[in-house]
Amino acid sequence: MGKLPDSVNIANTSLKWNGHTWAMVMLPLSKDYYARINLLAHELFHSVQSSLGFVQNNYESNHLDQQNGRIFLRLELEALKKAFDTDSQDKQNKHLTNALIFRRYRNSLFPGSAQIENQLELNEGIAEYTGVMISGRGKERTKKHFIDAIDSFFLNPTYVRSFAYNTTALYGYLLRLKHPFWNQNISANTDLTDFFIREFSIELPEDLASAAEGLAPDYNGNKIFAEEQVRADKIKEQIGLYHSLFVDQPHVILKFEKMNISFDPRNILPIADLGTVYPNIRVTDNWGILEVKNGALMSPNWDKITVSIPTKIEGQRVEGEGWVLQLKEPYALHRDELLNNYKLIKR
Question: Which CA distances in Å does 41 have to 38, 52, 165, 196?
Answer without folding.
Answer: 5, 15, 13, 23
